[in-house]
Amino acid sequence: MLILAFDTATPAVTVALCDAGGLVASESAVDSRHHGELLSPAIATVLAVAGATPADLTSIAVGVGPGPYTGLRAGLVTARVLGSTLGIDVDGICTLDVIAAQARAAAGGGEFLVATDARRREVYWARYAPTGARLAGPSVSLPAELPRGLPLAGDGGWRYADAIGEPELIEPRFPDAATLAALAAARIAGGLPPTPAEPLYLRRPDAREPGKPKRVTPAAIAEVAR
Q1: Potential cystine with 42: which of 15, 161, 174, 200 (Cβ 3.0-4.6 Å)?
Q2: The pTM is what?
Q3: Residue 204: which pLDDT band, with cuts at 50, 70 and 90?
């Protein structure tokens, strides 16, 4: 088993290569504007460290968000192209679930939240049981609308702590691809089929198709020409 895992749904670009014994190699960088430029070199690096080639991969795990459109799309397109080219499964896993799997130990045995930056001064968030099982979400909301009194993991808590009401912030801020790979490996071991790598955008992208052009009257043309 050799799983390539990566996530681009947050400002972090995180990549890991794991086999049956655990983590083999990993690369991470935080840069919210260069997901596409960072992802392919990071994949090449972890493969080189392991002395592996893409043909050695047995499956791919990718974070499906929720996340901003451009960054999330970079990871999903890469995963789909690799999976199709190599003829291997691609397993899509919620990015918030990956953060929750890392955060549950820090949550102190109680329920907790995970929130990431959704831009437009909003957050993507979900609520989790002490085991890391998702209880509600994912959703997109204003920070002030999050449930109060629960520990909060994810970068959204750090960015909007004042609006949320000074929550108890717990690590991590960003997902870790090694955890993503571990979740995918557990699914394989349990005989579960891969989840389709479909993006969790939760809202429309900022870009919009242009509407019908406005009718320009002779009077308007004459006014511009003055």
Answers
A1: 15
A2: 0.88
A3: low
